[in-house]
Specification:
By secondary structure, the chain is of the alpha+beta class. It has one domain (about 25-120). About 60% of the residues lie in helices and about 10% in strands. The protein is built from five helices and four strands. It has a four-stranded antiparallel beta sheet.
Length: about 120
């Protein structure tokens, strides 16, 4: 009987685990907002490992990183930390260059954008 209960518990837990690991809808909306801001940005360049990228290329890269880091990304803050702050290969910090040439740390940029999202909601 114990082995049956253990089997039943493990079966239910294994079915529920994808649900438990899924991001809450609000956090997914916050991440989607950041990706949308990157993808539709005008006049911003995203600098990764010394190379400048437009918003479309940067968003595609960040989506790829999000897919690879999905298990660690539960919140938008996790997204910034694990996907939007630095290269996972070279550990160089990502930068954002504004239209007037100002360089910003990408994590600070994303945190600022996230504050805008949170203030509206």
């Amino acid at each position: 009987m114990r082995s049956f209960l253990l089997f039943a518990f493990l079966s239910i837990f294994s079915l529920a685990s994808p649900v438990l690991s899924a991001r809450e809808a609000r956090e997914q909306a916050r991440i989607d907002f950041l990706l949308h801001q990157v993808e539709t940005s005008v006049g911003l360049k995203f600098i990764r490992n010394g190379a400048e990228h437009d918003g479309v290329a940067a968003a595609a890269h960040l989506r790829g990183k999000l897919g690879a880091a999905a298990a660690r990304v539960a919140t938008a803050e996790d997204f910034i930390k694990y996907c939007g702050s630095e290269s996972s290969m070279t550990h160089q910090r990502y930068k954002v260059k504004t239209a007037d040439g100002t360089l910003l740390d990408a994590a600070a940029y994303f945190q600022g954008e996230l504050r805008k999202f949170d203030e509206k909601r």
